[in-house]
Design goal:
This protein is α+β, with helices and mostly antiparallel strands and 525 residues long. It folds into four domains: 136 residues, GAF domain (Beta-Lactamase, 2-Layer Sandwich), CATH 3.30.450.40; 143 residues, GAF domain (Beta-Lactamase), CATH 3.30.450; 102 residues, Beta-Lactamase (2-Layer Sandwich); 98 residues. It has a six-stranded antiparallel sheet with strand order 3-2-1-6-5-4. The protein has a six-stranded antiparallel sheet with strand order 9-8-7-12-11-10, with helices on both faces. The chain has a five-stranded antiparallel sheet with strand order 14-13-17-16-15. It starts with 6 loop residues before the first helix and ends with a helix.
Length: 525
C-alpha cells in the first residue's frame, strides 16, 4: 500500500459494488479534501460509451461518447474540463478536471472532480488506479449477479409458463417475477389487438386501474415497438416525444421488446426504471429470451382457451340434446350424465354418477354386464348399434330405446363406453295409433259389409211380409250376428296390444295379418 493513505479506505475502493453511494466519503478520507465529494464517475459500457455511474441525476449528462474525449485525453494525464468543449463546460464547473480511469491499459472510465491544488498528481492517480480496479471489480460482480438473477428468472419463468394455463395468471406472474427480482420500477405486458395495445398485466405502477387500458400503437414507446417490430432502448425518456408517463412521473429510462412468434407480433414486454441509463443491450437480450418464452406461453394459453371454448360448446351441445347421452367406465359405473338422460330416465346427475348402469336403467330381465357390452362393441370395430333395447325409468316403467355404443380409449387402452339412446316410446305409440286406425278401418269395413245384406233382407221382408222372406231375414240376421260376434272376439284378442305402452313391431304386424285372415275367413262363409 502507498504510504500516506489509509489502507482501510483504499481497500474499500476495491469493494465498491454494493457501496457506490459511499464513494464520496472514501475519496474525501483518502485525499483529505471535502470538495472531492462532488466527484462524478462515468464507466464504459459494452456499447463503447461512458454511462453515468455516480451520482444518478438528471442534471448531468447521462452518457458521453468515447470520441468526444479520446482525442483530448492523451495518456494518463488529467485534463481541464474546459478543454473538452462547451458540451462539458455547460454541465460541469469550469474549474473541474477529468481524470481518466484505466483498467489493464484500456480506458474504462472518467473521473470528474473539482481541481484542488493541494492534491498531488501522484496521489490523484494512485487513488484513480484503486478506483478503476474497484469499479471493474464491481462491474464484474454486478454482471455476475445480474446473470445469476437472469438464469434464476428464466427457470422461474419456465415454471410459470408450464404450470399455468390461464393467460391472465401467466402474464401477471411474469411481471411480478421481473419486478421483484430485478428491481425494475415498473413492468407490463401489453397485448396487440388490431391497431391497439391493451395492458394485460402490470406490476410496480402507482395506478392500480391500468389493467385493460387500451391505446393506439401510434402512441408510446411500447406502441413504437409493436408498430415497428423492433426493440426499444431509451436511456432518457424525457428526450423521447413518444413516451407516455401513465402517471409515473419518476420514470427515467425504458426498454420495450416485441413479443412475437413466427414473425407475428403478439404484444410487447415493457420494463421501466427510475434511473437514467438503467438498461443495457444485455438487458434487452435477456428480455428477448423472456419474450420468446412468453410468446410460446401466450400461444399455449390461447390454444387452451380455444380448446376450453370448444369443450364448453361441445358440452353444451351434448347437454342440450334430447337424447340420453352418458358414459360408463370398464366397471359399468356412470361417469357422465346429460340433461337428456335426466329427462328420459328421471335420475338427476347426482343420483346417476358413480352408479352401476345395470342397476340404474336395466330391467332385471334385460340386464347385461358392462364387460359383455364392451366386448360386443370391440368385436364390431369400436361402435355398435342396437335398434331396440328395453330400459327402465326411475318410476319403474319400462320402455324401448335405440342404443349406440362407442368405445372410449386413450394411449393406455379402453377405459369405457359412450352411449347414446333415443326414447322410442312416443315414436312407437304414434306408429301403434296408425296401425290401430288401419285395423279399426278394416273392422268397420267388414262389419258394414256384414250388415248390408241384413238391411236388404229387412227391406224385402217389410215390403213383402211373406213367411219365406221372414225366414230368410231371420237366417241372414243369425249369420250376420255370428260374424259380428266373431269380429268382437277377434278385437278382444287385441287387448294386449291396446293396453301395452310399447310393443314389438313384428307382434303388431302378425296381429294385423291374423285379423285380416280371420275377417277373410268370415267373409268367405
Amino acid at each position: 500500500m502507498p504510504s500516506g493513505f489509509d489502507d482501510q479506505y483504499l481497500l474499500a475502493l476495491l469493494d465498491l459494488h454494493d457501496e457506490i453511494s459511499l464513494l464520496p466519503s472514501y475519496l474525501s478520507k483518502l485525499l483529505g479534501e471535502d470538495k472531492v465529494r462532488d466527484s462524478v464517475i462515468y464507466w464504459k459500457s459494452p456499447d463503447s460509451t461512458f454511462h453515468l455511474l455516480y451520482p444518478k441525476t438528471d442534471d448531468l449528462l447521462a452518457q458521453i461518447d468515447v470520441e468526444n474525449v479520446a482525442d483530448t485525453i492523451n495518456g494518463r494525464q488529467s485534463v481541464p474540463i474546459s478543454s473538452l468543449g462547451n458540451e462539458f463546460s455547460e454541465v460541469f464547473a469550469a474549474a473541474s478536471i477529468l481524470v481518466p480511469l484505466y483498467n489493464r491499459d484500456e480506458l474504462s472510465g472518467l473521473w470528474i472532480l473539482p481541481k484542488i491544488e493541494a492534491i498531488s498528481s501522484r496521489d490523484l492517480f494512485t487513488v484513480a488506479r484503486y478506483l478503476s480496479i474497484g469499479l471493474e471489480h464491481g462491474r464484474v460482480i454486478k454482471e455476475y449477479t445480474k446473470q445469476n438473477k437472469r438464469l434464476r428468472s428464466l427457470v422461474e419463468a419456465g415454471e410459470i409458463f408450464t404450470s399455468q394455463t390461464s393467460l391472465e395468471n401467466v402474464l401477471q406472474k411474469l411481471v411480478q417475477e421481473l419486478h421483484n427480482r430485478f428491481g425494475y420500477s415498473a413492468v407490463a405486458v401489453l397485448m396487440l389487438e388490431g391497431d391497439s395495445l391493451r395492458i394485460a398485466a402490470a406490476e410496480g405502477f402507482k395506478k392500480k386501474d391500468l389493467l385493460g387500458y387500451t391505446f393506439k400503437i401510434t402512441r408510446g414507446i411500447t406502441g413504437r415497438a409493436a408498430r415497428e417490430g423492433e426493440d426499444q432502448l431509451v436511456e432518457n425518456v424525457a428526450g423521447d416525444d413518444a413516451y407516455i408517463d401513465a402517471g409515473e412521473k419518476n420514470i427515467r429510462s425504458e426498454m420495450a421488446v416485441p413479443i412475437r412468434i413466427e414473425g407475428k407480433v403478439l404484444g410487447v414486454l415493457d420494463a421501466q426504471s427510475d434511473k437514467p441509463g438503467a438498461f443495457e443491450e444485455s438487458d434487452v437480450s435477456f428480455l428477448h429470451v423472456i419474450a420468446r418464452q412468453a410468446a410460446i406461453a401466450i400461444q399455449k394459453a390461447k390454444l387452451f382457451d380455444d380448446l376450453e371454448s370448444t369443450k364448453e360448446y361441445l358440452d353444451r351441445l351434448v347437454d342440450s340434446s334430447g337424447d340420453a347421452i352418458f358414459a360408463i367406465n370398464k366397471k359399468g359405473e356412470i361417469t357422465t350424465w346429460n340433461s337428456g338422460a335426466k329427462r328420459i330416465y328421471g335420475y338427476s346427475t347426482e343420483e346417476a354418477l358413480g352408479k352401476s348402469v345395470d342397476d340404474l336403467v336395466d330391467p332385471d330381465e334385460h340386464s347385461r354386464s358392462a364387460e359383455d357390452v364392451i366386448r360386443l362393441v370391440r368385436e364390431n370395430n369400436g361402435i355398435f348399434q342396437e335398434d331396440e333395447v328395453i330400459r327402465k325409468r326411475k318410476n319403474g316403467e319400462t320402455f324401448p330405446t335405440t342404443a349406440t355404443y362407442t368405445i372410449l380409449q386413450d394411449d393406455s387402452g379402453v377405459f369405457g363406453l359412450s352411449i347414446i339412446e333415443k326414447d322410442l316410446t312416443f315414436i312407437k305409440q304414434a306408429t301403434k295409433l296408425d296401425a290401430a286406425k288401419t285395423l279399426i278401418s278394416t273392422i268397420t269395413h267388414y262389419i258394414n259389409n256384414a250388415i248390408t245384406p241384413l238391411n236388404g233382407r229387412a227391406q224385402i221382408a217389410e215390403m213383402q211380409p211373406s213367411g219365406e222372406n221372414i225366414q230368410a231375414l231371420i237366417q241372414v240376421s243369425l249369420e250376420t250376428t255370428q260374424k259380428i260376434q266373431e269380429v268382437i272376439t277377434t278385437i278382444s284378442e287385441m287387448k294386449e296390444f291396446i293396453t301395452t305402452p310399447y310393443y314389438n313391431m313384428s307382434y303388431i304386424i302378425n296381429l294385423e295379418e291374423q285379423l285380416k285372415k280371420k275377417l277373410a275367413e268370415l267373409k268367405s262363409r
